Amino acid sequence: MAERLKYQKTDEEVKILEQAIRHDTRPEVRQRATAIRMLHLGSHPTEVAKVMAVSLPTLYNWHARWKEQGLEGLANRPKSGRPGKADEEYGRALEEAIAKDPPELGYAFTIWTAKRLRDHLERQTGINLSESRLRVLLRRKDYRYRRPKHDLHHLQDPEAKEQARELLEELKKGSSKTISSSSLWTKRP
């Protein structure tokens, strides 16, 4: 029969876990330290895995990494694979481009779209990213796309605007006489 894992921790280990849960800046370490502490407090591994929304093998893996490496074992490990194309230079070029209006850079348009920004950055850096990858990079840098608000206030005639406001007020006063009381909007039964 397989040996049962021992989840009890020393007072010192519990202090380290609690400190990590409260103050560690890495969310994965806080989550995993919480799981280890729940095991220490007597929660069944199946219950902890369910609460943490992970598989049981993942939970056992976290526990093994804690036993072998301590708190640093709970941190994410570097992932293998090809490094991203967008380096620090690309990030700086992105921030510089967004900080300027497109006409300042010689473009005929006034609003950056993901495609326009991607094309500009490709000309600047020589790095060709897809639009979706650029959007991910923008999100990581806390940029959000907003539709421009068109303001035509400068084109309005103040006298005509005042006349329209007065006419509207008159219509509101006499609205019960001219408009039927039935509404076009109804709730579904």
How would you describe the overall organization of this protein?
By secondary structure, the chain is an all-alpha fold. The chain is built from 9 helices and no strands. It starts with 10 loop residues before the first helix and ends in an 11-residue tail after the last helix. The model has no long low-confidence stretch (mean pLDDT 85).
Please outline what is shown here.
This protein has 189 residues and is mainly α. 54% of the residues lie in helices and 0% in strands. Among the domains are: 64 residues; 53 residues.
Structural features:
189 residues; elongated; 9 helices
**Distance N to C terminus:** 64 Å
* Low-pLDDT windows of residues: none
Shape: elongated
Instruction: Kindly name the structural category.
Output: mainly alpha
Integer-rounded radius of gyration? 30 Å
Count of DSSP H/I helices: 9
Number of strands: 0
Reading the helices and strands in chain order gives HHHHHHHHH
Major sheet details? none
How much of the sequence lies in strands comes to under 5%
Residues in helix, %: 40-55%
Mean pLDDT: 85
